[in-house]
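Anyone else keep sequences and structure tokens together like this?

Example one:
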Amino acid sequence: MNYLVTGGSGFIGSHLVEQLLKKGHSVINIDNFDSFYDYTVKIKNTLESIDKNFVFEFTDKESDIQKLISLSESQNYTLYYQDIRDKKGLEKIFKNHKIDLIIHLAALAGVRPSIERPLEYEEVNIRGTMNLWELCKDFNINKFVCASSSSVYGNNEKIPFSEADNVDNPISPYAATKKCGEILGHVYHDLYKIDMIQLRFFTVYGPRQRPDLAIHKFTRLISDHQEIPFYGDGTTARDYTFIDDIIDGIEKSIHYLESNSNVYEIINLGESEVINLNEMLFTIEKTLGKSAIRKNLPMQPGDVLKTNADITKARTLIGYKPDTNFQNGIKKFVEWFLRK
């Protein structure tokens, strides 16, 4: 099969690309190597995902990405340095390839930055996604997996969070763009018969996790004997989901779409195991064998108090079965962190 993956050099995307290639599929990776964080992280992700193990000499962003594109050329993998806001650029890619199914992971991520840059989040997460659906319509591509987010639930009072819950009260621009993506996705499904699964990811962690996210940031700062920013009293809690389980859920969603027609589904992908901030920090400290130096700070605007996924639908519909508990997941992450 020929799969197009947007954001295929990011955390989740690079793991998905790696898994699809191992199973003999062809992959087209579209990524804009956004400056949200150091572009070199995405280059390293890409090299790992295509099993290129050698020292990469970094110089400057543009030349480094062109070098990466040359290094990654193969019959079953193509990398494009492309922004999804540029519809004409995307159109050239669609003309060059036969695409069976799209897995759309590219987005501007992060709750707190979205409060500072809401218009940019709208451009990427809404307009960029609509560009892809417009091209699906034009090129008759009717299978689409889309990354949504648990952030759409806001401070949902009902626990655990179910896909049937009302999600009309997001508390950040990022969450609002993801909710818009779900609504507009249904429009394109209804009008143009694009079979679609929207996956609400719950706090994904593991090897290659973005360096700005809490588990990676805490691990780095504790290792370097630096203060960690500790927001709130430690009782905020997340349904942390290990990367391997998320990739399994994406693959099972792909298989479901390929086997069924007239599909529009929203599915939670979580672990259904809730860990609070105090527990998370303690687990990292225990695994590293080092103590954290806390800098206590107030809760941040846009942060939700708790997430907890009801994964009944995912189990029933696609056979999703997460099997990595938090302690083992942190152990695997720390092992990766220490050898990278």
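And example two:
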Amino acid sequence: MGGSAGAKRGCEIVSPEQVLGRLTDIESRAAPDKFFLRGRRALLETGPRVAVVGSRRASSSGLELAKRITEFLVDREVTVVSGLALGVDTVAHETTIASQGNTIAVLGTGLDRYAVSRNQALQDHIGERHLLVSQFPLGKPSHRSFFPRRNKTMALLTDATIIVEAGENSGTRHQGWEAIKLGRPVLFPIRFLESTRVAWPAKMAEYGAFGFDARTLGLVLDSLPYRSAEPLPF
């Protein structure tokens, strides 16, 4: 499948349809005009892909849970997608790499910028061995308004979103709502969904989000449809 390659630093520029196949009207409205890619484009053309996201300031138990969930996904050959932020995102990427799985980082900057300086080496490694995706051109620095747009794109690129742990005002909730709008499953660990400290997960449950535990996550994955750029036979 063809795509125009950016000469600078191995950046490939593609349309959403080139990597996701034909989009629905709702997906088309959510999609950016183009994606800038560095790494293994094929990770966007096969599935399943599941976002593992959460707070930058997650608790130690939340980070440990993110690690265990990610290991479970990798064991089932799921590509793990996250946003390269500190906290849950970093654990998701690092655990996938350590477990010899595949990971995609969706950035809120151009591919040649680093929103989190501490993750510069991790970002470079993902671009070399896995896949970096951005909707922003090279040279575009970080801006607060870019991260909700990044989250919308991550919801579009994935077949489901797992929100491990997040606070009442966490930006992670934006991705959950975008996934719901797109008809993608949104999952919470049951203990987080039932927490009385954060109100919005229960609100999302009214719109179809649901909880899981170690017994039920595998069943969810087994029934998960996934996006592919390959045309369907009918």
